[in-house]
Amino acid sequence: MELRRPSLADKAAIIDMIDEFIAARSYMHGGLGSTWQLVETYEDWLELIAQHEQGENLPEDWLPAAQFVTFDDQGRALGFLSIRLALNERTFVEGGHVGYSIRPSERGQGLGKEQLRLGLLEAKKLGLEHLLITCDEDNLASKQVILANGGQYDNKIEGVERYWLDLEEL
């Protein structure tokens, strides 16, 4: 599995994955669910995520974030991962620094665990030292992914569990 920034060359693979999420009526966590609906084309999306990472053209209450996509050895897009570069009141309670999802047909194979592990390495490169990750209390799969990557339970606020990870240990 490779985690990297999306490019124009990835268009077909990413559109294929987006189509699968839409057909399965599965929300695209990891930045795409919220940004994809703001654009008309893939090229517009690439431009928008580049702007967002620089803190430009952000909707109200949004934060700068780096967008990543995971791919298998054949170039098939497997999932999305977004790293917020800061927190605000909203993301401190729900959302945290990282959002992620694996395409519906590939779930249950441990890919989320590896995707997050790779994402933590990227977060460290981006200068983050302590990372907050949240998940709904009934999302057992996400909870297992967080715990497998060293997440330390903090608390639960309105049905959202909060976990901290120390990136200095990576």
List keywords for this structure.
single chain, 170 residues, alpha+beta, Aminopeptidase, 4-stranded antiparallel β-sheet, 6 helices, 7 strands, 34% helix, globular, GNAT family N-acetyltransferase, Acyl_CoA_acyltransferase, GNAT_dom
Short précis:
It contains six helices and seven strands. With 170 residues, the protein is an alpha+beta fold. The chain has a single domain, classed as Gcn5-related N-acetyltransferase (GNAT) (Aminopeptidase, 3-Layer(aba) Sandwich).
What does this structure look like?
A hairpin with a 5-residue loop joins strand 2 and strand 3. It contains 6 helices and 7 strands. The protein is globular. It has helices at residues 11-23, 32-35, 42-53, 89-93, 111-125, 140-148; strands at residues 2-4, 65-71, 77-84, 98-102, 130-136, 152-157, 160-166. Helix 5 packs across helix 6. It has one domain: Aminopeptidase (3-Layer(aba) Sandwich). By secondary structure, the chain is α+β, with helices and mostly antiparallel strands. It has a 4-stranded antiparallel beta sheet with strand order 1-2-3-4, sandwiched between helices. The chain has a 3-stranded antiparallel beta sheet with strand order 5-7-6, covered by helices on one side. The protein is 34% helix and 25% strand. It comes from Streptococcus oricebi. Residues 1-168 form the N-acetyltransferase domain. Pfam families: Acetyltransf_3.
